[in-house]
Automatic annotation (TrEMBL):
It comes from the Bacteria. Residues 269-476 form the Peptidase M28 domain. One of its GO terms (biological process) is proteolysis. This is M28 family peptidase. SUPFAM superfamilies: Zn-dependent exopeptidases. GO terms for molecular function: metalloexopeptidase activity. InterPro entries: M28_fam (IPR045175), Peptidase_M28 (IPR007484).
Length: 499
C-alpha cells in the first residue's frame, strides 16, 4: 500500500462509522446466484502461499531489484501450476516496463567548517540534485528573520519548525509525515526568498525518526520515464542536532558537492487469465488486481531489517491465486484476468503502466476488483472504498459487492475512509486508481491500516488467515456476479474524482 505524500494536505479527523452503501440494483439481483467454488478457497493453501511469499528469503520484494523479480517469478509459477493461462507479453506471464530511479550519488560530500558530515548518518539530502555550495551560512532563528532581508543566493540554516497544521492524530507513519510537511513548508518559504541552499536541523520530534525517514531519502525517487520531472534547483539538507550545532554560531561555512545518479531498472507485472465459458462474453474480462512488491531491506528496527510486507501486499497476491483456483474449478461466463502489479510502493507504477498498456483490449475490461491489505484488524470489519460519492464510479458494481457481502461473508463495511476529508487519503493509495482514471468501473477492498504498516513487523505470523480467506471469498463472489450478469456494469454518468 503506497504511503502517498499527497495525503499530507488533507486535514481533520474523520469519525469511523459503519454505514451502508447503496442498496442492490436490478443488475446485481440478476447475478445473485451463489458462486459455485467458494469452498475451493482454502485457508491451508492461503497460509502456505503467504508464508512463502512473505518469507525472509524474498527479502521484502523491493521494486527495481532482483528480489522483486524473484517474487514475480514465484507468482507466475504458482499461476502456471494452478492452470491459469499466461496473459502477459509474447505468450508469457510477464509484462516488463522501465522504471527510472534518481538517487543522491555516493560521491556526495558535505562539510561544515571543514569537518565532514556522514551522508545518511549525520546529514540527509532530501532530494537527488546536482549542486555545489561553498559559502558562509546565515543562521535564522525563525522565518520572521527573512522579512526585509536580501537572502538571494545565500545559504541559510535554521531549526526544523513544526508544520501547520500538524498531521492528524493517529495517522499512519506520523513521524514521517511530520518531517515531510515541515520540510515542504519551510523549503517553500525559503526558496521563495531565492536562497541557494537550505540546512534544517532536526527538532526533538524529528530527531528520533531520522533513521526511518532518512532511509526513504536514501532510496531516491522512482518514476515511469513519461513521468520524469525536473530535478530541484535548491538543495535541502536535513541534519542531526549534533551535526547542526556549529551552524548557530553565525560563523559557519558549508562546502558541499552534491551529485545525482540516474538509473533505468526493470519492473514487472504478472498477468494470467482464466477463460470464461460463454462464447459471446469470454472476450470480456473481470480484472482482479493486487501488487507483489514491498519495501525490501531497510534500516533495522529491533534488529529486523526486512520489510516482509505480509499484509502489504502478500495477502492479496495469494488471494488472487486462490481466486484463480476457484475460477479454474468452475469458470464464470466472462473471463477472469489476474494482474499482480510491480512497483506499487514506488508510486503505483505497475498499475499506471498496465492501465496505459494493457495486454488485452482496454474495452474488454469490464471491472477492476483491487485489494490492498486484507488480513488484519477486527475479524468482522472491512472497508470497501469506491463505494460512496465522490469515489464511487459504478453504482452497479458497488451493489454487486454489497450483495455478495450480505449473502456470503457478512462483514460490517466501514465506508468512512472513502470520505475525501479523511486525513489518510486512503482511496488514492492503491492500484485501482489508474483504472478509475481510465474510465473503468473499479472497487478497492481492504481491512485498513494497522500499527505494523510499513515496518519490519508486517510478518506472515501476524495475519488473520481466517479473515484473509473471508476477504478472498468476498472478492471472488463479487467477481462472479460481475462475470455472470447479462449486462456489463458501467461507469455512472458524470462520475469524477475530486483530485
Amino acid at each position: 500500500m503506497l504511503p502517498v505524500l499527497s495525503s499530507l494536505v488533507l486535514i481533520g479527523v474523520t469519525v469511523l462509522s459503519c454505514t451502508r452503501p447503496p442498496a442492490s440494483s436490478s443488475l446485481a439481483d440478476a447475478a445473485a446466484t451463489a458462486p459455485p467454488a467458494l469452498a475451493a478457497i482454502q485457508e491451508a493453501e492461503l497460509r502456505k502461499d503467504l508464508f512463502e511469499l512473505a518469507s525472509d528469503s524474498m527479502r521484502g520484494r523491493r521494486a527495481g531489484t532482483a528480489d522483486e523479480l524473484r517474487a514475480a517469478v514465484w507468482v507466475a509459477e504458482r499461476a502456471r501450476q494452478i492452470g491459469l493461462e499466461p496473459a502477459g507479453d509474447d505468450g508469457t506471464y510477464f509484462q516488463f516496463y522501465p522504471v527510472r530511479r534518481l538517487t543522491v550519488a555516493a560521491t556526495t560530500r558535505l562539510h561544515i567548517n571543514g569537518q565532514p558530515l556522514r551522508l545518511w548518518q549525520d546529514a540527509w539530502v532530501t532530494a537527488p540534485i546536482e549542486a555545489r555550495l561553498d559559502a558562509p551560512v546565515i543562521w535564522l532563528a525563525s522565518l520572521a528573520d527573512t522579512t526585509g532581508r536580501n537572502l538571494r543566493g545565500k545559504v541559510v540554516a535554521m531549526n526544523l519548525l513544526p508544520p501547520v497544521p500538524l498531521p492528524a492524530l493517529k495517522m499512519s507513519l506520523w513521524g514521517f509525515r511530520y518531517i515531510l510537511a515541515a520540510l515542504n513548508q519551510q523549503g517553500a518559504a525559503l526558496r521563495a526568498k531565492g536562497v541557494a541552499g537550505i540546512l534544517l536541523v532536526a527538532d526533538n520530534i524529528a530527531e528520533p525518526q531520522l533513521g526511518f525517514v532518512g532511509h526513504r531519502y536514501q532510496d531516491g525517487v522512482y518514476q515511469l520515464p513519461a513521468m520524469a520531472t525536473a530535478a530541484p534547483i535548491v538543495p535541502v539538507v536535513l541534519l542531526r542536532q549534533a551535526a547542526g550545532a556549529a551552524l548557530k554560531s553565525g560563523k559557519a561555512r558549508v562546502t558541499a558537492d552534491l551529485g545525482l545518479d540516474s538509473f533505468i531498472y526493470p519492473s514487472v507485472n504478472v498477468i494470467a487469465r482464466a477463460p470464461g465459458t460463454e462464447a459471446a462474453q469470454r472476450q470480456e474480462n473481470v480484472l482482479f488486481s493486487g501488487h507483489h512488491d514491498h519495501d525490501g531491506i531497510g534500516t533495522p528496527v529491533a534488529g529486523d531489517s526486512i520489510w516482509n510486507g505480509a499484509d502489504d501486499n502478500a495477502t492479496v497476491s495469494v488471494a488472487l491465486l486462490a481466486i484463480g483456483r476457484a475460477w479454474k474449478k468452475s469458470p464464470g461466463r466472462r473471463s477472469a484476468l489476474f494482474v499482480w502489479h510491480g512497483a506499487e510502493e514506488r508510486g503505483l507504477l505497475g498499475s499506471r503502466w498496465y492501465a496505459e498498456h494493457p495486454t488485452v483490449p482496454k474495452s474488454s475490461i469490464v471491472a477492476v476488483l483491487n485489494a490492498d491489505m486484507i488480513g488484519r484488524n477486527a475479524p468482522d470489519s472491512a472497508a470497501l472504498l469506491g463505494s460512496t460519492v465522490p469515489h464511487r464510479n459504478s453504482t452497479a458494481l458497488v451493489a454487486m459487492a454489497v450483495k455478495a457481502n450480505e449473502q456470503f461473508t457478512k462483514f460490517s463495511i466501514d465506508t468512512s475512509w472513502d470520505d475525501p476529508k479523511h486525513p489518510e487519503g486512503w482511496y488514492f493509495r492503491s492500484d485501482h486508481v489508474p483504472y478509475v482514471r481510465a474510465g473503468i468501473p473499479a472497487l478497492f477492498f481492504t481491512t485498513l491500516l494497522h500499527s505494523d504498516y510499513h515496518t519490519p513487523r508486517d510478518e506472515a505470523s501476524r495475519i488473520d488467515i481466517g479473515k484473509l480467506a473471508r476477504m478472498t471469498r468476498w472478492m471472488y463472489a463479487t467477481g462472479w456476479a460481475v462475470s455472470n450478469t447479462a449486462e456489463r456494469v458501467v461507469v455512472d454518468p458524470g462520475a469524477t474524482l475530486e483530485r
